[in-house]
Design a protein that fits this description.
By secondary structure, the chain is of the alpha/beta class. The protein has two domains: 153 residues, Alpha-Beta Complex (Quinone Oxidoreductase, Chain A, domain 1), CATH 3.90.180; 124 residues, Rossmann fold. The chain contains ten helices and 16 strands. The strands form three sheets. Strands 3, 5, 6, 7, 8, 15 and 16 form a seven-stranded mixed beta sheet that branches. Strands 11-10-9-12-13-14 form a six-stranded parallel beta sheet, with helices on both faces. It is globular. InterPro entries: ADH-like_C (IPR013149), ADH-like_N (IPR013154), ER (IPR020843), GroES-like_sf (IPR011032), NAD(P)-bd_dom_sf (IPR036291), QOR-like (IPR047618). Keywords: NADP, Oxidoreductase. GO terms for molecular function: mRNA 3'-UTR AU-rich region binding; NADPH binding; quinone reductase (NADPH) activity.
Length: 326
């Protein structure tokens, strides 16, 4: 049977993405072969395509996230069986394909209440929110928190989940339309950062105290303002750098601003252990099945249209989640 994947042979723009026939081998020890039904599109895919983030080698099949069915298992695989519906959001790269080999310990069984398309649209972003708000800094009911880019894919899940916990959700957004979107998803205080100083507004909302935690996936552009939003002994959670990396930082600033904590966590470290991965995914499935978090798939493309999907993502023409269909 002929299989297809979207690969790059060199780094570049969306035109570097090539839809082509590929061979898919039998699974080896500890591996499974997946028949994939839905693939998630994430901004990290753009970074891999351009070469900003390194890839293992060229040619390379892109993609970090997908869902489908286990078609075959290799020796020593006991976690999953042929016919099981599963999803993943983990290396190795290679999700942009109709079939692939994957380490068995990186795939998660899907409950009947979660569709393949839902899973492909939410695993990476949803588990990111899970580890940030439940494990990096466990948010408690009544706590004010600041989450940057509140109308982005991660942000919209975070607003809903934080709201369900009972937190007071403060979020930054780039436009009034995005403020409306964030508000509709549980953000109590959307701040349009292009129109007002978000640090001053956070101090105002919190009666001058500041917040105990800031979740910052933006990076350089929000760095100083984020630190200024924290109350004494607050935690700065820097989990991304959409606006560019923070390259220089003096730890003395943490003392000067009130004995602050700083962490730069990654999903991969928080799901490296099989049990942590299962716990994270199951916590996500639970809030989605309860209806506390709704994942909106606002764009679908066929896998062969991956280049157009990348163009639309980079031009900020997409909202919510996007999936590619093999």
């Amino acid at each position: 049977m002929t299989h297809h994947a979207v690969r790059i042979h060199q780094h570049g723009g969306p035109e570097a993405l090539s839809y082509e026939a590929v061979d898919v081998p039998d699974p080896g020890a500890g591996e499974v072969r997946l028949a994939q039904t839905a693939v998630g599109l994430n901004y990290i895919d753009v970074y891999h395509r351009t070469g900003l983030y390194p890839v293992p080698g060229l040619p390379c099949t892109l993609g970090m996230e997908a869902a489908g069915t286990v078609a075959a298992v290799g020796p020593d695989v006991t976690d999953v069986c042929p016919g099981d519906r599963v999803a993943y959001a983990a290396p190795p790269l290679g999700a942009y394909a109709d079939a692939r080999i994957m380490p068995a310990d990186r795939v998660v069984p899907l409950p009947t209440g979660i569709s393949d398309r839902q899973a492909a649209a939410m695993m990476l972003q949803g588990m990111t929110v899970e580890y940030l708000i439940r494990r990096v800094f466990p948010v408690q009911p009544g706590m004010p928190v600041l989450f940057h880019a509140a109308a982005g894919g991660v942000g919209l899940i975070a607003c809903q989940w934080l709201n369900a916990i009972g937190a007071t959700v403060i979020g930054t957004v780039g436009s009034r339309d995005k403020a409306d979107t964030a508000r509709a998803h549980g953000c109590h205080h959307p701040i349009v950062y292009t129109e007002e100083d978000f640090t001053e507004r956070v101090r105002e909302i919190t009666g001058g105290e500041g917040v105990p935690v800031v979740y910052d996936g933006v990076g350089a552009a929000t760095w100083d303002g984020s630190l200024a939003c924290l109350r004494r002994r607050g935690m700065m959670v820097s989990f991304g750098n959409a606006s560019g990396a923070v390259t220089e930082f003096n730890p003395g600033e943490l003392a000067k601003r009130g004995s602050l904590f700083l962490t730069r966590p990654t999903l991969m470290d928080y799901t490296a252990d099989r049990q942590d991965l299962l716990d994270s995914a199951n916590a996500l499935f639970e809030v989605v099945q309860r209806g506390d978090v709704v994942v909106e798939i606002n764009q679908t493309y066929s896998l062969s249209e991956a280049a157009q999907a990348h163009r639309d993502l980079e031009a900020r023409r997409t909202t919510g989640s996007t999936i590619l269909l093999p």
